[in-house]
Design a protein that fits this description.
Blueprint lengths: L1 H12 L3 E9 L6 E9 H35 L11 H13 L3 E5 L6 H14 L5 E6 L2 H16 L6 E3 L3 H4 L18 H12 L4 E2 L1 H11 L3 H9 L4 E5 L1 H4 L6 H4 L6 E6 L4 H8 L2 E4 H10 L5 H22 L7 E4 L4 H17 L6 H21 L6 E8 L2 E8 L3 H8 L4 E6 L5 H5 L1
Parallel strand pairs: 3-13, 4-7, 4-8, 5-6, 5-7, 8-13
Antiparallel strand pairs: 1-2, 9-12, 10-11, 11-12
Helix pairs in contact: 1-2, 2-4, 3-4, 4-5, 7-8, 8-9, 13-14, 13-16, 14-15, 15-16
């Protein structure tokens, strides 16, 4: 970075030499460490060129691919002799919806060929520059396999479309016991040093599913899940679960935090999205897990034990309320957010974040991280809490579960869909129509 700044200064001031001081500041102690160096203009030029040339080669490759891809899309023909009944109408309305930046709900019977009816016009729209990337989203693995079959049918006809299938981390990780900490995982350690060569090699393939990604991840000894996500940045179509668009825990942040591209979302078996999204936007914490971690936390971390105890105490109050009287309640619900618990959880996660860098025994660390992420998500969902939510208490023995339950996910779903140019939702069952549209 300092060498690039030096290049800019010399470019504008026509000097022969430049003096650079690089200063690192420790945010906690405010101590500084300095590196000082003198460069000639020739040295700065050489460093700049060595940085820019590989990048230009990479970007040129991307541009060449786009030209090849778009030409193949223009030449692409419908892969079957005839459209099935209703399939042409579906394709036409899908294309118009993408062009006009609207959402489209399609109910069509099984056997009409809905996958091709949505995918074919979406790819045509991509070739015309209406969209930059297609996300084909499914609720089940079997549905994603149908999407893959349809893509391959088009590829057999000459389509060049770089496509990646995202497989869940638990399913694609080759390790018996998954621990993504670089300290314990060889595939995570120095991942970004090995990534450029692995990515360049992998992207020679137009189609990248679990087996293809696993092959290249093994070859370069890197994480296959992270490799699939990085490959998705350079792919024209991404096939995966609903989660990767809608779920705030696993959403592909690299795409959806900022709006910089036009995306097309194809949502298959859309009738599943309502219940699935209720789960995605709900969060649960358990008293038992909090108490267990408190007991196993070493005495030296007394401040953490106190924060965990505060959360536990507020949950204990709810448990007592449910247990008092003649009839012990197993379930209870309230419209209001449990403010005391939410505040205690937020204060606890702030402190747990401080302890993340501390040394822990492996077994304790697993429990620590599991609870940390549960509390973090609970805190995040609490920020979404409004009249579309209810707080649900569930008592099993002495263990109390507190759940922030999303009853109506419509606003949250709509906000996510706004990240794209157009969303096409299709299923054999979208009745009653107004229910699903609302």
């Amino acid at each position: 970075q300092a060498e690039c700044y030096s290049k800019m200064i010399l470019e504008n001031n026509a000097g022969k030499n430049i003096y650079v001081r690089l200063v690192y500041i420790d945010r906690d102690s405010r101590k500084t460490k300095q590196f000082e160096r003198s460069y000639t203009a020739e040295e700065v030029e050489s460093a700049f060129v060595s940085l820019v040339e590989p990048y230009m080669d990479w970007m040129t490759g991307i541009r060449n691919w786009e030209v090849l891809r778009d030409a193949s899309i223009r030449a692409m023909e419908f892969p079957f002799t005839d459209y099935r009944l209703g399939q042409r109408e579906m394709a036409e309305k899908t294309y118009i919806s993408i062009k006009e930046k609207t959402r489209l709900f399609i109910q069509a019977p099984t056997g009409i060929g809905k996958t091709m009816g949505a995918m074919f016009p979406a790819i045509k729209a991509l070739g015309e520059g209406l969209v930059d990337r297609i996300f084909y989203l499914t609720a089940k693995t079997v549905t994603s396999l149908i999407a893959v079959e349809n893509y391959k049918k088009l590829a057999e006809g000459g389509l060049n479309l770089r496509t990646v299938v995202i497989t869940a981390k638990d399913k694609i990780c080759p390790l018996e016991k998954r621990n993504c900490d670089p300290e314990f995982c060889d595939r995570a350690r120095d991942y970004y040093d090995r990534l450029p060569d692995a990515l360049r090699d992998l992207l020679a393939n137009q189609f990248m599913d679990r087996e293809v990604i696993k092959e290249y991840a093994d070859k370069y000894n890197i994480c296959p899940f992270e490799l699939s996500l990085d490959a998705s940045l350079y792919s024209d179509m991404v096939i995966g679960d609903y989660n990767y668009l809608f779920d705030p825990r696993v959403r592909l942040v690299r795409f959806f935090e900022d709006i910089g591209e036009d995306y097309c979302f194809l949502v298959d078996e859309a009738h599943n999205l309502v219940d699935r999204s209720r789960e995605m936007f709900s969060s649960t914490i358990e008293k038992q897990k909090i108490l267990e971690l408190k007991r196993e936390t070493k005495p030296a971390w007394d401040d953490l034990k106190q924060r965990l105890e505060t959360v536990n105490r507020h949950m204990l109050e709810i448990r007592k309320e449910m247990s008092d009287g003649e009839h012990r309640q197993t379930y209870a619900a309230q419209r209001d957010i449990p403010g005391k618990i939410v505040t205690a959880v937020r204060r606890c996660t702030v402190l747990m974040e401080f302890y993340l860098d501390q040394e822990m025994e492996e077994e304790y660390k697993e429990k620590f991280l599991e609870l940390y992420f549960d509390l973090m998500f609970f805190s995040k969902i609490s920020e979404l809490y409004d009249d579309c939510y209810v707080t649900f208490h569930e008592l099993h023995g002495n263990n109390l579960k507190v759940r922030l339950m999303c009853l109506d996910p419509s606003k949250l779903l709509s906000k996510v869909m706004d990240k794209g140019r157009s969303t096409i939702l299709f299923s054999a069952t979208l009745s009653p129509r107004d229910y699903y549209k609302n």
